[in-house]
Amino acid sequence: MGKTIVKIEEVDKTYYITGFSGKILGEIKALEKLSLEIKKGEIFGFLGRNGAGKTTTIKCLMGILSPDSGKIEIDGVSIHDFPIDVKQKIGYIPEKIGLYEKLTPEEIVEYLGKFYQINENKLKEKAKELFEIFGLEKHLEKKIEYLSMGLKKRVALVCALINDPELLVLDEPMSGLDPESTAALRESLLRLNKKGLTIFLSSHLLAEVQKICSRIGIINEGKLTTLDSVSELQKKVNEIGMHLHLKVKKVDRFGNVSGVLNYIDKIEEMKYVKNVKAFPDGDLVRLEIDVEKDISPQITEKLVENKIQVYSITPKEATLEDIFLLETEPNND
Known about the structure:
This protein is an alpha/beta fold.
């Protein structure tokens, strides 16, 4: 890796809300001064809440939308100035795939081969390779309408890769897949990446992103808030430590309803405790405790010593999701 294949520089995109008369009633700032570079040969994960700007970014990257300002280059070529040349370098699968339901995988690939003007022998060779990679050999004569969602997505991947693109752009590729299909797709993408394919994928499945991506960007309200390698983000995750979720009885040994709240300061003073929050939960109180390591026995002992009845305690290790939630909180600066 080293050469930049995707360069997004200072991109702005605003959607305008208009009335029946055409009068502008409001606006939505989808992207604001978005800058991002992706290196050749990496798998880049693009994360964000719904409405954060992920799909708008991808549509601008593909030339489907034009940014209001800024520039986008693929392998040094402007998508705005040379759209046809750039699109020859990209394979794209939107979240909602569209395939000709009455055709078979072989028929679709044959049609696309003619569209891209690919030599017939080369097309057959490439199609055979891709059908094997995605495990479609047994389904080539079945019409698309009879295939599962997982198989349809594999066919869509074959279509996106048939012209040997340098970059594969995927919008929510694991959406709607069962665990088996998700694992199969993950392994196929890793296999393609080892052959040199650069992959840009948008996803909300953080565990999958953590398994497959080399770098991650998080977008929030149209702005890039995080850009780092998975290994560096894992270090940040480790710094967060663990979360302990407890449910305890409201009353203490003297029958005071707020009794448990009197002992929060004592828990906060314990070694390895970073933060304690208390929330009402029916007849109980829910405690959320951030700790550097699992000290569930010591905390339980402290509460029981003071006659606070503990109903449950659940340790939970920090994950990439914690970083994601921190970076995408409303009005997070």
